[in-house]
Design goal:
By secondary structure, the chain is mostly helical. Among the domains are: 1-92; 208-268, no CATH class. It is built from 13 helices and no strands. The protein has helices at 10-20, 35-38, 41-51, 56-69, 74-89, 95-103, 110-122, 133-148, 153-182, 186-199, 206-219, 223-236, 241-267. The radius of gyration is 30 Å and the shape is rod-shaped. The chain starts with 9 loop residues before the first helix and ends with a helix. The model is unreliable at 1-31 (pLDDT under 50).
Amino acid sequence: MKNSAPKMTIAVLIPLLVALGLLTGCHKKTVELTPDLASSDEALYKLGEQALKKDTEKALLYLRQVMDSFPKSFYAQRAKLLIADAYFKKGDESNMILEFIRAYPYSPSAAYSQYQIAMTFYKKMLKPGRDPSKTIQALAEFKKVIADYPASDQAKAAQDKIKDCEERLAGHSTEIAISYYERRAYRASLGRLTEVMNAYPAYSRLDQVYFYIADCYFMMRQLDQAVPYFTKVVTDFPGRSLAKTATKRLAEIEKLKAAAKDTKDKKS
């Protein structure tokens, strides 16, 4: 495809050739950039696309030239996406991809671009127990994929990544809660655990969450509040090791309640 762009003058062509390192003496290898080639958005785009495999910097120059010389061209849109992809593969932040979405919000590639933004954060996530900021950012961006492009293929992939992000965040908060529990900061632990229970109902270690909620109440001698959570561990997770400990706790609670009743009866 050729656009009826204004003919490039020698004054325009020479800086382009210099930038690309194509003039004789600038580089061992030379590439002839004729006026016909320079006036074709499709030809420049294909040069950039091919160069990406071997020389990213040269490819970016070709692609930027497409955008500069043919800003309203179909290939300008594709060139911008290739540039954004190139930066993504180099591990750069998501600014270039975000620029593409802002420039072409209704492009068929917009969903893919939003997914790539999310992936820039997803690839930098740390393990539970460490700074969760990248995980939180990734989760927010994956949710945008589903909210803005619900019918896209990327929405399905984003759903799986959301589950992984939420699993990591739930694990992070649970570890903090258990550390509070171990330091006998039971109320602080309860706050964290309750947050996990409400925010992440699909968390794979809800048995831990329920158990430590129950045991916080147990340690504070709020036995009636502890019973439902210990019971939930036993009934919902019978195969987990914490189910045995929860069963023992329930037996202890029965004994404590019986002893308290006997003491009350004797006093009366």
